[in-house]
Amino acid sequence: MSLINDALKQARKTPPRNLPTTVPPPRPAADDPSFFPSWLLPSLVVFLIVAAIFFIGWAVAHRNVRALVAEPESAGSSTQEVAAFSLPVSKPRPVEPPPINPADAPKLQGIFYSPTAPSAIVDGKTVRPGDKFGAYRVKAISKYTVTLIGPDKREFQLGMGN
User: Fold this and answer.
1) In the chain, beta strands by DSSP E
2) What are the sequence ranges of the domains in the chain?
3) CB-based burial, 99-136: b 16+ in 10 Å, e otherwise
4) Where are the alpha helices (DSSP H) in 34-143?
5) N or C end of the chain: which has fewer CB within 10 A?
């Protein structure tokens, strides 16, 4: 114990170290340089407004051109005017939809539609696009139908309640 007491007495006799008594004041937050210049945000807002006006104008103009092309010209107008204002429009070929619910098809019992992960219950089994069950393969699942490919490679659709 005397060693501890001797050490404490000696520590009291030694002069304290010279520590700085004053701490420098912190720098004000306003003096810190900003990561983004002050003009960046207003210029970004102006740019986005101008871009939005441009795209809205383009969409309205594009819609009007489609309306002009789709409307037939009156009989009194010359063919030269029609050629000047009409754009060549390719008409899509009509696609024959696959038959819905053939007699020998499996029974669709429910559809759980999600754009990212659709699924359906067919003959009591949960299926997703690309799955195989029995002799059939699921090609696609929409909100109201399930498109299957049969063993003969023909497509057909299953609908609810049909």
Assistant:
1) 108-112, 119-122, 125-127, 132-133, 136-141, 145-149, 155-159
2) 45-72+79-91, 108-159
3) eebeeebbebeebeeeeeebbbebeeeebeeeeeeeeb
4) 40-70, 79-85
5) N
